[in-house]
Structure formats: structure tokens, C-alpha cells
Design brief:
The complex is a heterodimer. In chain A, 0% of the residues lie in helices and 50% in strands. By secondary structure, chain A is mainly β. In chain A, the strands form two sheets. In chain A, strands 2, 4, 5, 8, 9 and 10 form a six-stranded mixed β-sheet that branches. In chain A, strands 1-3-7-6 form a four-stranded antiparallel β-sheet, with no helix packed on it. Chain B has no helices and eleven strands. Chain B is mostly beta strands. In chain B, strand 5 and strand 6 form a beta hairpin. Classes of the chains: A mainly beta, B mainly beta. The interface between A and B is medium-sized, with 25 and 24 residues.
Chain lengths: 110, 121
């Protein structure tokens, strides 16, 4: 099966823009979803589909994709955005469907 | 709002079985696919299984195929994960997750708080 690759750690200065990337062959055919997880909490979806934000997710979060790379952009990062971020995408092998998670990116807001 | 409450976790010996349940409320359960996703303490997420809104489609991760089964009871708004032949590497926090799409298998959306499974002798 294929994989999704993320940088283990990224940092951003408060108020600046940061892009978190996710690479994998499945992303050529399927959109990525993005999840934010803070310590001791369950993950929360922040982006899914082409660039959909669930209600309650600030509009500073956006998603994009090009080729085999999906990106989560936080425009004007806030202290509360410090968390682990995971990408996810669907993939298939014949008639078998499965979902993949990236290894996660730890975002530090300086 | 969406509420997912997992139960059934615990300590179990290798080779034994365990059944997890997930009680859903706050949305039309019978219209959404449902996932199980697990997380080893301090590590990343691993997708485990999915069942379609009507139970007609089921898919599993390679790591659990043949050992785990997924089912649902739409009359009870409840999702299940039957785990057989458990191994130490199945030790994890298991999350019940609602899909984002109506009557379609797209991606995990809303998450429960998880139930901890520990496989140890």
C-alpha cells in the first residue's frame, strides 16, 4: 500500500503564515483531509475535500493540492494553533478501499 | 451536535477477543459511513476500518484483515468493532469517527474521545 509523508516538525512565528505539506501517490487522485490534535484530545478535522472547513474552524485554515502534494496553510498563525497536524486520504487497490494517515507534523508557534 | 461515545476497551491477553461499541447521537446515524481509527499512545494515527451507511460495504486495514470485523445497528445508532486474535501491537486508543459525507465514503470527520485497548499477558 502507498504512504503519506509529512515533515515531523514545523515552526512559525506568531501571526505569520505556515504551510504544512503531505506527499503521496494517492493525492494525485484523492483530496486530503487535515486533522488538528492537541495533547490529550481527540483529533479535529479542519479541512476536508477540495477545501472545505467544518463549522467552527477559523478561515485562517485552508487547503490546496498539486500533483502528489497536499498542503494545509494557516494564514496568521495563533498560539492556539500549536498542535499536531495529520493528513489523510483515501486510496484503493483493485476493489479494496483504504484510508491512509500521514505521520503527523508538530507545529510550534513561536 | 455530533456525539460519539466509545466503550468496551480494557486489558486483554494476547489471542483473546474484545468488542468495542460506539453510541452515536446528534446526527442521522443511518445516513453516514463510520470509521474506526486507532492511535498508539504518543504516536500517530492508523486507520482501521470503515462501514458504509447501510452496512453493505466494509473495508479494513491490512494489519487487521481477517481478525477484526465491523458492524452497525442503525436501529440502535451503534457501531461495533469485533477484535479477535488480539496482538500486543493492537494496543491503542480506538476512536469511532463519523464520515464527512452523506451516504458516501469520503474521509473521517467527527471523532469520539476513544476507548483504550491494552493487549498484554
Amino acid at each position: 500500500s502507498s504512504e503519506l509523508t509529512q515533515d515531523p516538525a514545523v515552526s512559525v512565528a506568531l501571526g505569520q503564515t505556515v504551510r504544512i505539506t503531505c506527499q503521496g501517490d494517492s493525492l494525485r487522485s484523492h483530496y486530503a483531509s487535515w486533522y488538528q490534535q492537541k495533547p490529550g484530545q481527540a483529533p479535529v478535522v479542519v479541512i476536508y475535500g477540495k477545501n472545505n472547513r467544518p463549522s467552527g474552524i477559523p478561515d485562517r485554515f485552508s487547503g490546496s493540492s498539486s500533483g502528489n502534494t497536499a498542503s494545509l496553510t494557516i494564514t496568521g498563525a495563533q498560539a492556539e494553533d500549536e498542535a499536531d497536524y495529520y493528513c489523510n486520504s483515501r486510496d484503493s487497490s483493485g476493489n479494496h478501499l483504504y484510508w491512509l494517515f500521514g505521520g503527523g507534523t508538530k507545529l510550534t508557534v513561536l | 451536535q455530533v456525539q460519539l461515545v466509545e466503550s468496551g476497551g480494557g486489558v486483554v491477553q494476547p489471542g483473546r477477543s474484545l468488542r468495542l461499541s460506539c453510541a452515536a447521537s446528534g446526527f442521522s446515524f443511518s445516513r453516514y459511513g463510520m470509521h474506526w481509527v486507532r492511535q498508539t499512545p504518543g504516536k500517530g494515527l492508523e486507520w482501521v476500518a470503515i462501514i458504509s451507511y447501510d452496512g453493505s460495504e466494509k473495508y479494513f486495514a491490512d494489519s487487521v484483515t481477517g481478525r477484526f470485523t465491523i458492524s452497525r445497528d442503525n436501529s440502535k445508532n451503534t457501531l461495533y468493532l469485533q477484535m479477535n486474535s488480539l496482538r500486543a501491537e493492537d494496543t491503542a486508543l480506538y476512536y469511532c469517527v463519523k464520515d464527512v459525507a452523506l451516504r458516501f465514503l469520503e474521509s473521517p470527520g467527527s471523532w469520539g474521545q476513544g476507548t483504550l485497548v491494552t493487549v498484554s499477558s
